[in-house]
Amino acid sequence: DEAGLRAHFEKVIADDRKIEPRDWMPDAYRRTLVRQIAQHAHSEIVGMQPEANWLTRAPSLARKTILLAKVQDEAGHGLYLYAAAETLGVHRADLLDALHEGRQRYLSFINYPTLTWADTGALAWLTDGAAIVNQVPLCRSSYGPYARAMVRVCKEESFHHRQGFDSLWALTHGTPAQRQMAQEAVDRWWYPALAMFGPPHHASVHSEQSMAWRIKRFTNDELRQRFVDICVPQAELLGLTPPDAHLRWNDDRGHYDFTPPDFDELTRVIKGDGPCNRQRLAHRRRAHDEGAWVREAAAAHAAKHRTPHHG
Ligand code: FAQ
Questions:
Q1: Cα(257)–Cα(259) distance, rounded to whole angstroms?
Q2: Which residues line ligand 1 (CB under 6 A)?
Q3: Which domain of life is it from (predicted)?
Q4: How far is the CA of 195 from the centre of ligand 1 (A)?
Q5: Residue 166 parent element (H or E)
Q6: ipTM of this complex
Q7: Cβ 168 vs Cβ 125: under 8 Å
C-alpha cells in the first residue's frame, strides 16, 4: 500500500541510499527532479552558444581544438541528462518543446554575450568553476541516474575549468592589451557566475524540500560562498581582480566577505529579459527546426530495422 511505499522511500532517503527509476517515489519528488534535470540539460545545450560564437575566431589551432572539444562535451552532457530525465517517465522531445516554448529554464549566465576572445576564458574559468562547486554535491544526489551522470560531467567540467584558467593565464602573461582584455572579461563574468547559484536562501522556493530529499545538499548561499573562497586565490595567481571593492578575507568567519549579485537582475534574466535571451532561444529553435530531417531519418532507419526480415 501507499503508506508502506512511502515509508520505504523515506527510509532510503534517511539511510542516504539511492532512489532508482523503478522505485516508488512521491509525485512531487519526481516533478522536482524533472524540473531540475531538464533545466540542467537545457543549460548544457544552450550553453554551447556563447563559446561556439568564438570557434571560427580562436587565435590558434590548439585553442580551436580545445574549444571544439569543450563545446562537444557540453552536447554530450545534455544527452546524458536528457537520458537521466527520461528514466523519470518523460520524453526528451517534450522537454525540448517546453524549453522552446519558455516553460522550462536554462541557467541565467548563458544570456550574457561573449564580447571578446577573453570572454571564452573567463566564462570557462568562472562559470565552469561555479558549475563544479554546484555539481560535486549532486554526485551524491538521492536520485541514482542523476548522481551517476554527474560523476562524468564533473570530470569533464574540471577540464573545462582548467582550460579557461590556462587561456586567461596566456593572456595575463601576454601584452598589456591582452592583460586588459582578460581583466575586462572577468569584470563582465564575475557576477553572472555568482548569480548561477540562484536566489538567496530566504527567497529559494525549492531548496528546503530538495535538501530534505537530499537532491540538494547545500543552500544556494553556502555554495556561492564556497565558490568565492576557491576563486579568489586563483584570481590572485592570474593577477586578475574580481570587480568587487568589498571582497576581503574575514578571519572571524574563515571566509571571504563579498558583495552578492544583483538578485533583481537575476530575476529579470530568469524571466526572459537578459541581454541575449531572445537571441539564444531563437538560435536554439532554429537549430531544432533545421535538425528535423535528421530526427525523421533516424526514426525511419530505426523503424526499418524493427521489421522482421531485418532480424
Ligand atoms: N538561472 O528555489 P530555487 C554548465 C530558478 S551549465 C536560471 O533556488 P532550485 C555547462 C530555479 O530553476 C550549468 N534559473 O531553485 C556550461 C527555480 O525556477 P522554477 C549546469 C534559476 O532548483 C558551462 C527558481 O529560480 N548546472 O555547466 C537560476 O532549488 C560553461 C527558484 O530557485 C545546472 O544547471 C539561475 N541561475 O536551485 C556551458 C545546475 N537560479 O524551476 C557553457 C542544476 C535559480 O521554479 C559554459 N540546477 N533559478 O521555475 C541546480 O543546481 C538548481 O536547480 C539551482 C536552483 C541551484 C540552479
A1: 7
A2: 35-36, 39-40, 43-44, 47, 74, 105, 107-108, 123, 127-128, 131, 134, 157, 195-199, 204-207, 210, 216, 220, 270
A3: Bacteria
A4: 9
A5: helix 144-172
A6: 0.98
A7: yes
